[in-house]
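Ticket #4471: structure export looks truncated?
Reporter: QA, pipeline team
Priority: medium

Steps to reproduce: submit the single chain below to the structure queue and open the exported record.
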Amino acid sequence: MAKVAHAPVKPRIKMTADDHERLSRLAASAMDRVPEVASFLLDELDRVRIVRGGSSKGEFTRMGSRVDFRDDATGRTQSVTLVYPGEADIEQGKISVLTPIGAALIGLSMGQSIDWETRSGALKRLTVLAVNVPEAV
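Actual output as written to the record:
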């Protein structure tokens, strides 16, 4: 029996209503500058489950979250803070949600994995190891 290749199923993601609203506007306004990333972010926003209020059971990646994740191909782990474009600073580990990896991380919970495409077109997979949400969020 021949194996049939299936596109990987994207994990279920969560988001606050505030993040969803702000990110929808951001992605729409970025379509002319970074169309591939903006389109990917809009696709993620289309499949999100909105969490009312600021809290929920279990933590998920939202704006301002510190996220530990693993590159599943290399095993390399990394810790970043997900921020809006104007706050991005790679030296401080702050990555923009308008980067391919930033758009992939939004809404993920610990243990979830997602496939994402780098700016050069390489397909990668990451797994979230921990999510730390700031108290003010």
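Status: closed, not a bug. The export was complete when the record was re-opened. Leaving a note from the reviewer for reference: The radius of gyration is 15 Å.
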